[in-house]
Specification:
- The chain has one domain.
- Helix content is 66%, strand content 0%.
- The protein is built from 6 helices and no strands.
- Helix 1 runs antiparallel to helix 2.
- It is elongated.
């Protein structure tokens, strides 16, 4: 979900790159030097954005696969397939599979934000963390930390928590 938004921003950079390339082909000689520098800058930005998107994708998929393994959810490898990973999220949270509609259908994905919070709240609860951590998943950069904590920290499942003795 986040990956698509990041790649949409790089689409604008690609359009700007095409315009610069056209100016390189059809511009005057003095304009070509400036356009070449601008083309190099846009190419560098595009490379940086795509590299960042790839790193975020790998981090998210690895964390989701780890959460699936720790919750004994079968087919943890589904975390690496972009749209199918939503089905894995629903399986981990033990939610109905028809909820995927809220993430795929354009108008309904506004409600998908609420359903996404509910899913992450349930996953946090299953991993033995407070369920309000699911709300933090909508905050940029904080969601990366929460995702890592849900995946790689040693959380005690809520059902296995033992009350302290007095």
């Amino acid at each position: 979900m986040r990956h698509v938004k990041m790649l949409m921003g790089s689409g604008l950079v690609a359009v700007a790159g095409m315009l610069v390339a056209a100016s390189l082909c059809f511009g005057r000689d003095e304009d070509r030097a400036a356009a070449a520098g601008l083309a190099a800058l846009i190419g560098g930005m595009l490379f940086f954005i795509l590299t960042l998107a790839l790193v975020c994708y790998v981090y998210f998929a690895l964390a989701l696969q780890t959460i699936a393994k720790k919750t004994n959810t079968e087919n943890a490898w589904l975390a690496w397939i972009p749209i199918v990973s939503i089905i894995l999220l629903l399986n981990i949270a033990k939610k109905p599979l028809w909820w995927i509609i809220f993430f795929i259908v354009p108008i309904l994905n506004i409600a998908g934000i609420v359903f996404g919070i509910l899913i992450w709240m349930k996953i946090a609860e299953i991993r033995g963390r407070p369920d309000w951590w699911g709300i933090l998943m909508i905050i940029p950069f904080v969601n990366l930390v929460i995702l890592g904590l849900l995946a790689w920290s040693d959380g005690t499942p809520a059902s296995a928590a033992v009350a302290p003795q007095a």
